[in-house]
Amino acid sequence: MKKVGHGTFKWMKSINRTIVLNKIRKNAPISRAQIASETGLTPPTVSNIVKSLLEKEIIRETQLGESQGGRKPTLLMLNSNHLFVIGVDAGPGYIKCILTNLEGQTKKEYISPSVKGISEEQFLQEMKQGVAYLLHADIPKEKVIGIGVAMHGAVDAITGTSLFAPNLGFRNLQIKQHLEKEFDIEVKVDNDARAMAMGEYWFDEHGELETLVALNIGSGVGSGIILNGKLFYGAQSVAGEIGHMTIDLYGELCECGNVGCLQTLATGDAIARQAKKEMTLEMINQLKEPLSGETVYKLAKEGNEIAIKVLERTGTIIGIGIINLIHLLNPDRIVIGGGVSMASEFIMPSIKKSIQDRGLTQQVKDTEVVLAKLGSDSTVKGAIAIVLDSVFHPTNN
Ligand SMILES: [Zn+2]
Predict the structure, then answer these.
(1) How far is CA 109 from CA 58, 137, 343, in A?
(2) Rounded to the nearest whole angstrom, what is the distance from the C-alpha of residue 361 to the centroid of ligand 1?
(3) 256 C-alpha vs ligand 1 centroid, how far in Å?
(4) Domain 8-78 classification at class level
(5) CATH 1.10.10.10 domain locations along the chain
(6) Which residues fall inside 5 Å of ion ligand 1, going by CB?
(7) pLDDT digits (tens, 9 = 90+) for 270-280
(8) What is the chain's Cα-based Rg?
(9) Is domain 84-200+379-396 given the CATH code 3.40.50.720 in the classification?
């Protein structure tokens, strides 16, 4: 039996092999004859590819098929627990690493201590430690087809470089190069919002969406755009930077140097600043913790009217950002994730009202707006999806 070794990632990416593999992934259990008739590949081609996939144990045979009078046909399905993927959520607060099977089910995880204030070298070291921990489990390195890294800030996905991570003050951190050198496994790096978009798209049960925009609203505001099933980057990889969409010409100064960007109005810090302006000094002094976006959410849940009003207004503003996106791209679905989305009970109704008030047509007003269904795992699962997508959809890369 041939061993799955290094280069499995590249080996899986031949076009016909990918077509067969995708058919099996989406329609399993499925017979060889069905694959041939539904993909248009010839039966001998399908047979050869299936043989090689079976040899590498990427797929397996099962006898679950319905008998058509004769012998039960042998059906094929992914051998999900034979190959694995590592996902890394490299956030501004901590690094989370997970090991999943080919279906994206988590088998093992690692969460770093706080990364606030650490150097670029320490940050890379933390990331390596997380990956090494997962590899030291029962999984040999040869069975890991790739490592996906979702990094906050501006990322060059082609070179796998973090161009600028404002919260940590990093510039030009060559993540892909460092991790590949250390582990000899293919590494994909993208920014957190794009990873989130890919995760929400890839792990969607219905799988029929063509266009989706995912907004990551937390300590910053970013978005990932899936157009016709592919991540959209634009000419300089800046597509989706909606945090710097101008909302208020006379607004607050943003870290980018402009004023009134969406990011100055919708992040956790922005929510805290708004609340601080409206609360009396006495109210602020009574708090048992420093005023943060999370505190405002807690106050809102206790019925504090100022906190509720601030969150609702934040929702209205996010809704304005979203309606601009909708009129520009007309997506099937908008997904909202990140820390601020935790306060959805207060922000979601006003987001939806904002869209209802401003949409150009009834269908546009009714655009599906949902919370990230992968929740707090949406970024790290997105990192997994980026690797899976590049294996199963090589034409996307
Ligand atoms: Zn800005």
Answers:
(1) 23, 10, 26
(2) 30
(3) 4
(4) mainly alpha
(5) 8-78
(6) 244, 254, 256, 258, 261
(7) 999 999 999 99
(8) 23
(9) no
